[in-house]
Amino acid sequence: MDYKILERDAKLGDYKALKKLEERQAKLEVLPVRDAFGYSLTWCPDAIPEELIDDINKMYKNISITDIDTDISIEKESFHSCRIEGADTTLDELFDIFRAKRTESKGDKMILNTYRAVKFLNLTSKRNTDTLVRLWEIVTDGVCDNFGLSGSKFRTGVVTVGTHQAPEVELLDYCMKQFFDFYNADNIECPYIKVAIVHFYFVYMHPFCDGNGRIARLITSDFLIRSGLNNFSALTLSKTINETAPAYYQAIENSENSFHDVTPFIQYMLKTVYDNLYEVLEGQNKYVVMHTDWKRVFV
Question: Is the pLDDT of residue 100 over 80?
Answer without folding.
Answer: no
